[in-house]
Automatic annotation (TrEMBL):
Signal peptide: none annotated. GO terms for cellular component: chloroplast. The chain crosses the membrane at residues 78-100, 106-125. This is Small multi-drug export protein. It comes from Prunus yedoensis var. nudiflora. It comes from the Eukaryota. InterPro entries: Sm_multidrug_ex. The keyword Transmembrane helix applies. Keywords: Membrane, Transmembrane, Transmembrane helix. It holds the Pfam family Sm_multidrug_ex.
Length: 136
């Protein structure tokens, strides 16, 4: 959590500074931003909730640093990005702790159930958002 404020606040400025100085750095940063933008679709759609759930998923590449990069790229407000990252990290820690304490067989079953629930939850949220936008 310590580097997150710096990533959220200064990533774009630092990236533009580096890109102006070095072509290899510009290519690397372009690749980094493209990958972060690809992962940002649920975050872009649901903002705080999307970022918190993105960080909470205990998979490689979905942690707080990537969440901070996505928040910076999407120009999320600082405190919203910090709180979403914080609660996502806490939730991920609780999930991993739960899965470790359950044992392998129950962890696999719980992982499958959580995947099904999360897929169902995203579809409900998307439908809810569509119904809100169509009624406006």
């Amino acid at each position: 959590m310590v580097p997150l404020p710096f990533i959220i606040l200064y990533l774009k400025r630092f990236a533009s500074f580096l890109a102006g100085k070095n072509k290899a750095a510009a290519r690397f940063l372009d690749i980094l931003f493209v990958r972060a933008k690809e992962k940002a679709s649920p975050v872009e759609e649901f903002q705080w909730l999307g970022l918190m759930l993105f960080v909470a998923v205990p998979f490689p590449g979905t942690r707080a640093w990537t969440g901070a990069i996505i928040a910076s790229i999407l120009d999320m407000p600082f405190w919203a990005a910090m709180s979403a990252n914080f609660f996502g990290v806490v939730l991920a820690g609780l999930l991993v702790n739960l899965l470790v304490n359950l044992g392998l067989k129950y962890a696999i079953i719980t992982g499958i159930i959580l995947f099904i629930i999360s897929t169902f939850m995203w579809s409900i949220l998307r439908n809810f958002r569509k119904s809100l936008s169509s009624s406006s």
